[in-house]
Amino acid sequence: MKKLETSDVLLYPLATEKAIRAMESDNMITFIVHKKSNKQQIKKAFEEMFKVRVTSIRTQVSLGKKKAYIRVSRETPAIDIATKLGLM
Questions:
Q1: What's the number of domains the chain is made of?
Q2: What's the CATH code of the domain at 23?
Q3: Residue 23: is it exposed, middle or buried by C-beta count within 10 angstroms (0-12/13-18/19+)?
């Protein structure tokens, strides 16, 4: 099996109403990630891409897609990252 590259882990961010509320209240960003990725790969990819510190990750698989709820440190507001991504 081919090793998953860092650039292939994060697919796209979610901008649902629930995801926006999580950004504002919990400093958390929601991404759809590669189905075979694990939490360590997600953390590494996110920290490399956005140059921030990740404090925790929760994952969920539903409808054939894997979501990662990524909480970043308080020094970097999640809203700032969402603005860079064009979500806000």
A1: 1
A2: 3.30.70.330
A3: buried
